[in-house]
Write a structure and sequence with these properties.
15 helices; globular; about 550 residues; 6-stranded mixed β-sheet; 5-stranded antiparallel β-sheet; alpha+beta
Length: about 550
Amino acid sequence: MSKLTIVLDPGHKTNYNKGVYSGYYEGNAVWKLAQYLKEELENGTDQINVILTKSSLAEDPTLYNRGQVAVKNNATVFISLHSNAVGDTSKYEQAYGVSVYRSLFLPDSADLGHKLADAVVSVMRPVTGVTYSRGVLTYQSTKTGRDYYGVIRGAVNDAGGVAQAASYSVKHAFIIEHGFHTNSKECAFLADDNNLRKIAKVEADVIKEHFGITGRTEPEYAGLSIMGEAVATETQMLEYLKANNPSAAEEFADLPSLYLDEGKVEGVRGDAAFCQACKETGFFKFNGDVKKGQNNFCGLGATGGGNPGHSFESYRMGVRANIQHLKAYGSKETLVNECIDPRFKYVSRGAALTYEDLAGKWAVPGYDTKKYTSLEAARSEKDAYGDNIVAMLAKVLSMSQEKSQEAPQEPQTGSVGVIGTVKVIYEGQDGLNIHKTPEWGNINLNLKNGPVHAGEVFNVTEKVTVGTGAMYKLLSGAGYITASEKYITFTASAQEQIKSDKKVKAGDTVKVIRNVTYTGGSFKLYYDKYSVLSISGDRAVIGIGEVVTAAVNIKDIAVA
C-alpha cells in the first residue's frame, strides 16, 4: 500500500504568544508537540510519512505557504498545531476547551476532527478539570467566500467549493487549538513536556485507527537508506582511505568532513556517500574517464567512451553535487542549498530509497558483466553496485576511531554537536572565505574547498572568539566561517532553541547568541561566556566580573 503522507504545521515561531503560565510560549510548545507527534505517527509503522512545514523553531513561513507544503507533497492530512487565546484579560479564566477548525469544503473530515478533539480532551480534562470539546468548526471569509484561515486555504489550494477541493490530495485540513494559553489551568498543562507527549500519543493513535494503520507492511530492514544520519566518524573514513590509497589520504584529507557536513545539511548519509566516491574514483586514483582536477567524485555525466562528465569549482562543490544527486534518488523533499547538480532534474524523485536500489538506476547495468549474467544474479550474491557501497561502509565502521600519529590534528576549541545553521548573505562575487583554523588572514584560507557564496547553508558546531570578532566552526572540522552578521545569518537548532528558552536570571553564566545591544547596536565578543550582572524586564546587563560589557535583550543570550 502507498504511504499516508501527513503534514504537520507547528504554528508561529520562537517565543511567540506568551501564556499566563511562566515560561510558556505558544510557538515553542507547538514546535515540541510537532516533534512528538511526528515520532508517534512514524513509530512502529512504515505506512506513514510525516513532513513538517518548517525545519527549525525560528522559521516563520507565511500562513498560505505552510498549507501549500501539503499540496506540494501530495499529503492526505494537514494539521496546524496551536493553543488558543482571548484578548480581554477579564475573560482569561472564562475561556477554555479544545477547538478543531476544518476546511469549509472538506465536510467528510468532520468525523476525524471530532475524534481528535475528543482525544485531546481525554488527556487534558482529568488534570485541568475544565477542558471540553468546543466542537469542529469552520470559518468563512465574508469577502471571498473561501476558507478564512490562510493555512487551511493553502492546504486546499485556495479551493472555492467542495468539488474543487475534492480534486486535490488533501482530504483533511485542520487547525487544532489545544486549550487556551490565557487560561491558567490549561496553560500550566501545556507547559509540561510530558503532557505534550500524552497529547501526541492520543492524536497519533486516533489517526492510525482512522486510516486502518496497524504496523509494518515491509521487513524493517530493506537496505541501507540513502537518507539518514551518518554513523561513521571522520577519522574512520580517513583511516579507510589511507588503508586503500595512502597518498590520497593526504591530498583528499578534507573530503570525509565535507561529506559529513554536506550530507548533514541535506539529510543524506554522508558516510555512505563517501564510500560511493571511493568506489567511483578507485579511492581517488581517477584512472577512468573522470580526471582528478574535475572535483567530480561520483562520475556525474560520465557516460563512458571517454566522456569525462561534469566539473566543479572546488572540493566542496563536487561533494555537494554528489550529495544532491543522492537526495534526488533517495527523497522527494526539496534541497536546502541551491541546486548545483546538473543532472538533478533528470532523476525521478524517490526512485531509489536505498544504496542497494542504485544498481541499474544510478549505475547501469550496475554489476560486473564478466562475473554475472544479470543484475538479479549479482544481487543474489550481494555483489551489485549498491551492495559494494554497503560492504565498503561496513569496512569503514570497522576502522579504529583513534587518530594515527600522521593524521592531521584539529584545534581543540570546545563542544561538539550541531548548534545550528549558518546561511551566507554576503553577495560579493569573490565569495566568503572559509578558514582552516580559527584565525584571520589569507594564509589560513581553505582554498581547496573554495569560497562560499550567498544562499549556501552550513551546519555549525560552536561559536569561538577570534581576536575582536568571532567564528563558527563548521560540522566535522571542515573549517571556520565568520560570525559577523554583515555576512551570515545564524539559526539555532531546535535543541539550542530549547536551551535558550531557559529563564535567565542575575548571576547566571551565559553565552551570547547575537552580539546586539539592547538599543540595536553591536558589540565585540572578547569572551565565550559572560556573567549576568542584573535583569530588568527583558533587558540584561552582562559583563566579566564586575565590569559591564553591554546591555542586551534576554532573547539574545542563553544559559551556558
